[in-house]
């Protein structure tokens, strides 16, 4: 236990001078939160005595007419009475005025009697600050536990993942814990904390609690100038709002006195620490109550070690992440929005949903394109080389020419003739030396990713996912590290012992333990985490094939670091003939060493016969081989990772993300051997950046940003100043880029087809009544050449014309979208409504953006017909909705094109309900069930399979209340289809009264609308307007045609759901 030195500054829970609470956990010179406060000591002491806030271990009772106030803070087990007495005498207090100081052996009382004064029974208790760190005063409860209310103090622990929370709770509780459900599981048990009995609560988050984004007013791509984003504020919102992690943390933190943070020990984890602190409310008393656990694995040993060495969270590293997030958000979104809007609006075969830019992503792509340009501009050259052959003692040896190769055929032939004329080779030198091939250093993240790509066939993204899973399961240490050097205190023997019973390499481990292992060679200590190390034994049956391959390599690498070096003998024989020198080399392995467990690094055995110096051997033949120089191959993922590391692009955690991004954006394609071949789009982008501003795609600028962010992490730079400086630089570059965009456009024009020449004719435009073309490449969209308008369509499915039906709101022809697979949904949609929802707030209702699969390129969330509340359209949710979804707050809607396998699907989740199969027709009616308010459906059965009596085929009823129909429906996804949905109407408990009133109001208002289009706007009004002077979006006019306040009407309708 640490030895705490005393000083003379008194403080209490609330300072009598400035009325501020002391910040527990501060150093001693600032224990009360404000240095120099000496006011109202006596009042504070009296209040503390009354409130019982003194420490309970023992007290000092001072008998004095002056009522001097002191309390010694010490540990019963570590400080003896003599030590306490010595401490008292060493302080700068006027002990000379006291006659005697006595301490009871049980530390229950210390008595001080003032010289020349009668004893008085005044005893006040007040904490005095400690030179190290002090703990919050606790009161002794009736049962001997410590708290301010007589109960055990509660301690909350937060991990980054549920699996890690479980491992921590299991290690600290010894498996004796109770678990209850919440947003994430909560494990509870009793234990000790800093010498006190406490009640633990261990829970977790699921990654970052918050994500950064722009406020709502900057979200619309059409109304926001990308340049404004550089000066726009940013807001933090919950990353996964449906998980309610913030509320969960706040609730679980109530009544807890301490917070212990078990997040991943990297910058991202440090940032999540402060997100958790914000959610729990501990920031108001940050310091003594907030603790940070530093750990590299989730084994019981490491967890207990981390628990005994808690530190404070690092604010600087958290701010470094904040800085990076803000820079990447503003720079990336501004360039991405401008590029996407500009190029997707002009070309039809780009085959990319967004034309993105990223300060790390784009230089990464630049490496791939640079190699592609080197390959295309490479000019091969012919060369020749000489290879004499000899037959000696049963060996045919091919000798290597010391000149290696020549680029002149005539000169090569001349040398060949010289050798041929001699006809023999003379041995002129024999050298033999022992060579040592060093064992590997520890394994860091970058080297793991390289091996995973080049040898195991895993992309960086998959490799990191597998490594993280192995880590959370407790099989390996933390997989994100830059270090290759093990700490001096690393327990090699214990780690080897954990692997000794593995059936694959257990015998090798036993041999290492018996013969003695070698300490790993020195590597790089980055000060973050030890190298990636196996922590427990596993098998392929436990892990699965892919995870096992990665785990196997990690184990083999670790065992290789503890093995002896590989030693072999290298023999070189030198020959001379016709004035030219040749040689051959032999190798003989003496000690396999680490290559026994890492055979792919083994030295090849090369046997050659013995020669004697001066010996002459006849040449059997001599060949002048012709060859040509070869261009470099396309970059492999392993090579790209090396380039990114060398140039400071990304971190060990973000490198896989950047490589994955350029693949998903269709900038590169991964081909055989995991080679990255850039596409025409990727090449055009990089060449365009090089024409306009090469800095945008060079690694130097990102490397500089990473250096600045590292200074923030070390506390050597202010994060706000770094962000301000970087954003200002990119803002200037963006302005110049926009002015010079024609240079890049010229490259795109030579490579891609205009929208007018792309796609196939599909449906009519509701404005000009001319046919629009469907462009299926990403992003899937419709293009009207007459209006020069683009309408995005749902991605990843097929689009067809739907019976030439039109939308009653805007006269656009309806389309049907079908998802792939036998269970894929199909739904109709209007292209205009999908891009410009006619009702405000539709993108926030029912999770419309997720259920419809919208591209959401600033074109609204997307409103398919299954979300439309229009009362007269036969395809809207009002007409086709049947009943409430049994799994969520959505509505089960009839799939209009699912015959003969009729079904209902939820407009929010993946719930799918099959209806009587083989029916000729199933349709909804205008009637509603009097019991549950679900829509009555009409089923026309097949005559051969009808379940009705006497061969009847027509049946009308409610699928929830009608016994026949209920017996014929079946849930395909999710929970079983039950009658729990009864009495909920067709979604969120809506009732007929609200529906009817809405239908009536909407019908009345639609009758007042003028003209064939939205709100009477004819086709000529929009086409005659220039881009800068165009009228407001048609959707706004359409909404404004309703009498009264349409938003209030719409909200009133949805309130009844």
Automatic annotation (TrEMBL):
InterPro entries: Topo_IA, Topo_IA_2, Topo_IA_AS, Topo_IA_cen, Topo_IA_cen_sub1, Topo_IA_cen_sub2, Topo_IA_cen_sub3, Topo_IA_core_domain. Pfam families: Topoisom_bac, Toprim, Zn_ribbon_TOP3B. The keyword DNA-binding applies. PROSITE patterns: TOPO_IA_1, TOPO_IA_2, TOPRIM. The keyword DNA-binding applies. Gene3D superfamilies: 3.40.50.140, Topoisomerase I, domain 2 (1.10.460.10), Topoisomerase I, domain 3 (2.70.20.10), Topoisomerase I, domain 4 (1.10.290.10). It catalyses: ATP-independent breakage of single-stranded DNA, followed by passage and rejoining. SUPFAM superfamilies: Prokaryotic type I DNA topoisomerase. Coiled coil: none annotated. Releases the supercoiling and torsional tension of DNA introduced during the DNA replication and transcription by transiently cleaving and rejoining one strand of the DNA duplex. Introduces a single-strand break via transesterification at a target site in duplex DNA. The scissile phosphodiester is attacked by the catalytic tyrosine of the enzyme, resulting in the formation of a DNA-(5'-phosphotyrosyl)-enzyme intermediate and the expulsion of a 3'-OH DNA strand. The free DNA strand than undergoes passage around the unbroken strand thus removing DNA supercoils. This is DNA topoisomerase. It comes from Sesamum angustifolium.
